[in-house]
Amino acid sequence: xxxxxxxxxxxxxxxxxxxxxxxxxxxxxxxxxxxxxxxxxxxxxxxxxxxxxxxxxxxxxxxxxxxxxxxxxxxxxxxxxxxxxxxxxxxxxxxxxxxxxxxxxxxxxxxxx
Amino acid sequence: xxxxxxxxxxxxxxxxxxxxxxxxxxxxxxxxxxxxxxxxxxxxxxxxxxxxxxxxxxxxxxxxxxxxxxxxxxxxxxxxxxxxxxxxxxxxxxxxxxxxxxxxxxxxxxxxx
DNA sequence: AGGCTGATTCGACTTCCATCAAGACAGGAC
DNA sequence: GTCCTGTCTTGATGGAAGTCGAATCAGCCT
Lengths: 113, 113
Known about the structure:
The structure is a homodimer. Chain A is of the alpha+beta class. Chain A has a single domain (about 15-110), classed as Arc Repressor Mutant, subunit A. Helices cover about 50% and strands about 10% of the residues of chain A. The first copy, chain A, has helices spanning about 15-20, 25-40, 40-50, 60, 70-80, 100-110; strands at about 55, 85-90, 95-100. In chain A, α3 packs across α5. The longest helix of chain A is centred in the first third of the chain and has 14 residues, at about 25-40. Chain A is elongated. The relative contact order of chain A is 0.17. Chains A and B meet through α2, α3 and α6 of A and α2, α3 and α6 of B. The structure holds a DNA duplex.
């Protein structure tokens, strides 16, 4: 191993929350699935659509993608299980909305300070 | 389709950059791979380690994980190909450092305003 | 009840991914 | 040059993920 140039805290402000505190194994296990859920172009756009309004009906999401309704449902489930969104059926339609705490947790990790 | 309750821009400040401007198909294709790269607990911790200092030697990363050196290399390559880190060999050792622009792009998307 | 529409789940298929072991490559020390 | 150490690449494999079509469930409406 080479000699370290010993710059421990100096970098804490150079980048972001990622650098501020080391991500523990537990943190990584909790946060990685959220990043993973956003790591698909379809789901990233879905999350964007949902975040853009207080709540969004699945019936508006479906026609925005060239995918079967089953696949749409699958992706929404992935976002929900990652904790990024929540949903509720009201009568005929199902509505999804963003979970600000989850977004906040990811944002805090990446935020440049 | 249900009647929309027409709340177009009002939500732009309720959440984050995700909501500020709709993520286009091209944006999604560019940004999703970065989220995907962070969507693995091992890589998230690696990114955190690398971000914590100006640059980090692979020889310091390897012993921090209970994985073969081949697997370590594979994950670092994934981070590099996603544009999140860069690397350089200097003599015997290879050093990795964070790419602040990439982190900034993700941060801007999630930042709560 | 019966039928209709919206949404989810299921089964199957294909592709991608994390991992290891083993080999290849790079660079220093001798 | 020949070793040795550090890193990367390759090949193989088991498992996860994205997709579709079909079946199923939920809730209106007549």
